[in-house]
Write a structure and sequence with these properties.
The structure holds two protein chains of two kinds. By secondary structure, chain A is an alpha/beta fold. Chain A has six helices and 18 strands. Chain A has helices spanning 64-70, 104-116, 136-140, 161-170, 183-195, 234-238; strands at residues 2-11, 16-21, 32-36, 43-46, 49-50, 55-60, 77-84, 94-100, 120-127, 145-150, 157-158, 176-180, 199-203, 219-220, 223-224, 231-233, 246-248, 254-256. Chain A starts with a strand and ends with a strand. The chains are: A alpha/beta, B alpha/beta. The interface between A and B is large, with 33 and 45 residues. Bound molecules: flavin-adenine dinucleotide (FAD), flavin mononucleotide and FE2/S2 (inorganic) cluster.
Chain lengths: 257, 304
């Protein structure tokens, strides 16, 4: 475990925060880190910033661990393991990225990398409502085709991100689909990509304990999400009977989504 | 070609490598990955009577020469674990069911269920160093090791392997107690009780403060334990602790082990580590004129 220093803590929306810290080294977009506020619970977080000298995580406050992260002050000590796992491998010239909720956190660095690599990028950014739209400004600064979608229609188009994406994909032209969000959304995205013959890469979540590929807590099919994931090729996910349907609770009990 | 086939009492194995308890042993699919990766058998996660979440995170941290963990025996409970054991057994995989309980009656009940699900043997976790009142806390008592082993032996027909803790003055004494309880073999070692501190945070990293040390750093301790146990008992020994290569495995075999388990090395090498270790063992045997694995068992003991 490495001790990093917190450099910035930013509130992005009512429940979403970004913590920046001075962890040095290279990281791939889509990789994650185990973050630990000493004395609290350690948890996995996708990296929303992957600069050499500075990393970041953008997260929704859902419990004690994320609450403690949001209350950090610059200068505080943050225990880190990582970067861990496999990130996005961007392929082709024309990319469509689909993000649901905090899913944009780990997709944003991939989108930035694709744009700087000269790819054409379409981003479908979905949220429940206008107040929860994340990274809209960060993406507007890039030359991407940005499509906003909200469940209640309070910003952008009304509907699920996958429905908006479907209309774009039907017109054709995309080489690759990247997706991060709730698993039922990922299952729809992966199936859509299959149907239209596009390669897809989806970032999935499982309850994680060790983050090192040993304890088996993060099982998905025969894979360990912390090592072989969190980003998987959609085709591989669709061949796993538990994808989109079942996962392990912290005890190892099998539970449905 | 040197033959790697191994026998541990009644258990016949295609090679001497087995997946250690608590590594990838939560689901059938993951255990099948270890078998695909070359393991001759798999040990399940240690399973108890009821579901338990284990300790909160941080439960694992990397150190210079291995890992510290305080998983705290998370498991779905024996009844929910049935499909996982059956899922391996139905593909003809050899499953060793690891169980833990707070008394002999609990161990016997769990072992009976593992047997009915299709396990080929049971391993008794008398050695977890980070679960209050369980594991090593009972596994350090000679009478309890003997009585628990005896109770499980009465309950099942499959082989019974108590797994011992190195966190005692004399591990060979525990092995002798297990043999008196009619154990079919001994598994040694579980992790070493240990601690890691993050200096910047001025606090132990693991949520349980103490954890168990595994990986390359504990291999010399494990080899010493197996050597001592082999001098004390006649039943077969399964060696475990820090094995990453064929040479590591051979150290255990020459100390007196009939087979080995591999855990932490799965992190660095993936589930393919078993085939890697076997290939390296085969090369060593060919280069040094060993035809059978049994020719190496206890070879470093010089008749002791
Ligand atoms: C690879 C990966 C990347 C992630 N990236 C992000 C991200 O970028 N932004 C974000 O907001 N969230 C992310 N998460 C989810 C995040 O880990 C949980 O929201 C966080 O652990 C909640 O902790 P808590 O103590 O606040 O809540 P708790 O009250 O402990 O739990 C609330 C819920 O969070 C989830 N959770 C809790 N502990 C874990 C754990 N150890 N592993 C996985 N899920 C857990 C469970 O669904 C639980 O029901 C990611 C998860 C994974 C596996
Ligand atoms: C993450 C982890 C979980 C473990 N869980 C168990 C367990 O449930 N039961 C058990 O008897 N041993 C457990 N162990 C101990 C291992 O089975 C093994 O005895 C020990 O790690 C030494 O072997 P190694 O160095 O090859 O890992 C666990 C070890 C690790 C690292
Ligand atoms: S979290 Fe332990 S194996 Fe992935």
């Amino acid at each position: 475990m490495k001790a990093a220093r917190v450099t910035d803590v930013l509130q992005e929306s009512e429940h979403v925060w970004t913590v920046r810290f001075d962890l040095e080294g290279s990281a791939l977009p889509g990789q994650f880190a185990m973050l630990w506020v000493p004395g609290g619970e350690e948890m996995p977080m996708g990296l929303s910033y992957i600069d050499w000298g500075s990393k970041g995580a953008t997260f929704k406050v859902v419990g004690d661990g994320t609450m403690a992260l949001s209350k950090l002050k610059p200068g505080a000590c943050l225990g880190t393991k990582g970067p861990l796992g496999r990130g996005y491998a961007i392929k082709g010239a024309d990319i469509i990225a689909i993000a649901g909720g905090t899913g944009i956190a780990s997709l944003a660095p991939a989108i930035e990398l694709a744009v700087s690599g000269g790819k054409r990028v379409t981003v479908v950014l979905g949220a429940k409502s206008a107040g929860e739209m994340l990274f809209e400004k960060r993406l507007k600064r890039l030359s991407v085709n940005l499509q906003l979608a909200t469940d209640d229609g309070s910003l952008g188009k009304k509907g699920f991100a996958t429905d908006i994406a479907q209309r774009l994909v039907e017109k054709g032209g995309y080489d690759q689909m990247l997706a991060c969000g709730p698993e039922p959304m990922l299952a729809r995205a992966a199936r859509m990509a299959e149907e239209f013959g596009i390669e897809s890469q989806c970032s999935v979540e499982r309850h994680m304990k060790c983050g090192l590929g040993l304890c088996g807590a993060c099982a998905l099919g025969g894979a360990r999400v912390c090592v072989e994931g969190p980003v998987f090729v959609g085709k591989a996910l669709l061949s796993m009977p538990d994808f989109g349907k079942r996962r392990l609770a912290p005890s190892g009990k099998v539970i449905s989504f | 070609m040197a033959s790697l086939s191994a026998t541990v009492g009644k258990l016949r194995l295609a090679n001497p490598t087995i997946l250690a308890a608590g590594i990838l042993g939560m689901t059938a699919e993951q255990m099948l990955e270890a078998l695909k990766g070359g393991a001759a058998a798999v040990v399940t996660k240690s399973i108890g009577l009821k579901a338990a979440e284990g300790h909160p995170n941080p439960t694992m941290v990397e150190t210079e020469c291995g890992y510290l963990n305080c998983m705290g025996l998370p498991n779905p409970g024996i009844d929910d674990f049935k499909p996982e054991v059956e899922g391996v057994a139905k593909h003809d995989g050899i499953v060793i069911g690891s169980v833990y309980a707070k008394d002999a009656k609990g161990f016997a009940a769990l072992a009976r269920k593992m047997e009915s699900y299709g396990a080929s043997a049971v391993e008794l976790n008398l050695s977890c160093p980070h679960a209050a009142g369980l594991g090593a806390e009972m596994g350090s008592s000679l009478t309890r090791v003997r009585n628990i082993t005896r109770a499980v032996k009465k309950a099942v027909d499959i082989p019974v392997f108590p797994k011992l803790t190195p966190n005692v003055q004399k591990i060979a004494g525990l092995a002798l107690a297990a043999e008196k309880g009619r154990a079919d073999g001994i598994v040694a070692i579980n992790t070493l009780k240990a601690m890691a501190i993050l200096p910047e945070a001025r606090t132990p990293i693991l949520s349980n403060a103490y954890g168990g040390y595994s990986g390359p750093g504990i291999k010399p301790v494990g080899v010493r334990c197996v050597y001592e146990i082999a001098g004390e008992v006649d039943i077969p020994i399964i060696g475990v602790g820090g094995i990453c290569s064929g040479r590591d495995a051979i150290e255990y075999i020459m100390a007196g082990a009939s087979a080995v388990q591999i855990g932490s090395a799965v992190a660095a090498h993936g589930p393919g580590v078993f085939a890697k270790v076997c290939a390296e063992m085969g090369e060593f045997m060919t280069a040094n004129g060993y035809k059978r694995l049994s020719d190496m068992v206890g070879a470093a003991r010089g008749g002791r």
